[in-house]
Amino acid sequence: MKAVTKTSRSHGAAYRSADVPVINRDELLIRVTAASINPGDLAIYNSSAPDFSPAQLPFIFGQEFCGEVVEIGSLAKGFEKGDFVSVESHIFCGVCGQCRNDQRHICQNLRVIGRDTQGGLAEYAAVPARCSWKHTDDSLKDIGAVMGPFGSSVHAVLAEDIVGRTVLISGCAPQGLFAAGIAKAGGAKRVVALDASSYRRKLALKMGADAAIDSSGSDCLSKITKTCGSEGVDAVIEMSGGAKAVSLGLKALRPGGRFVAFGLPVTNLSLDYAGDIVRRGIRLEGVAGREIFRSWYKMESLLKSGAVDPRPAITHTFPMKDFKKAFALINSKEKNCGKIILKP
Ligand SMILES: [Zn+2]
């Protein structure tokens, strides 16, 4: 088979031949029909991921993908050849305290497919059966590769009731774009998106945001206040990890508001901890991944009912062999892209 393969510690990757994976008894062999690119893949491609070890080389990365089941391990129950599955990239152990308390997404022994194991930017991938979401029909086949990231946005936005609330989406990369649509579908009174890219602000409006503010402009806080009200926003969904954005989001909240920390800063942040969080009673919630599989049931319902449509956020599809074009677009200063799909 062909696969996008990291062959050295330097920037980039190669599209080269590899053996079709041999599955373990608890795994499925998936013929990948589509994969999408996420920040973790980008960090590996750019060689900027701190948890990427030379010992893994050469390795096939890719955390978000879907496909057809073509082989089934003897212990992998509940699947048939020909089933269409999306992949939950978080491999949970099933026996730690977190897993036994319904928090598999923050398993103490968590491994990530395509980071800690061979991934899905390939024609075939081996996936534990317990990390495979079987579709019951073909209605979501075209968006099967983005189910994982969409589920993360579902978890981030809907962890708490947002009906009638004002919501600020900070950062309109794909996770933020999905979040804008989910917030609107979840009954938010007003959804305001924040991003420096005019292309992505337009996408946020397409996804259902009521307003989109240029984060590179001056006086963002007063613009947020103007559109959401002087009392401050009820919830901030922080998807960018940018130091300025985190500080702005905290200041934009009303006292007692909810700050969802999702975006990953590349350096340690300096915050007005006492003034912006403690004294104002801000509720800070870290969100990593999605609840396995509660978020999947929620998103299937949201998607099949038509309450939210992630398709406007999917802006480009390339043959997998053209993966360099996709990464160049995401790495570009302009960021004129939303979610990008690669097809083997
Ligand atoms: Zn566990």
Spell out the blueprint of helices and strands.
Elements: E1 2-6, E2 14-17, E3 27-36, H1 39-45, E4 59-60, E5 64-72, E6 84-87, E7 90-91, E8 111-112, E9 124-128, E10 132-134, H2 147-158, E11 166-170, H3 174-185, E12 190-195, H4 198-207, E13 211-214, H5 220-228, E14 233-238, H6 243-252, E15 253-261, H7 273-278, E16 283-286, H8 294-304, E17 314-319, H9 323-331, E18 339-343
Parallel strand pairs: 11-12, 11-14, 12-13, 14-15, 15-16, 17-18
Antiparallel strand pairs: 1-2, 1-4, 3-5, 3-9, 3-18, 5-6, 6-10, 7-8
The structure holds zinc ion (ZN).
What distinguishing features does this structure have?
single chain; 344 residues; alpha/beta; Quinone Oxidoreductase, Chain A, domain 1; Rossmann fold; 2 domains; seven-stranded mixed β-sheet; six-stranded parallel β-sheet; 9 helices; 18 strands; 25% helix; 26% strand; binds zinc ion
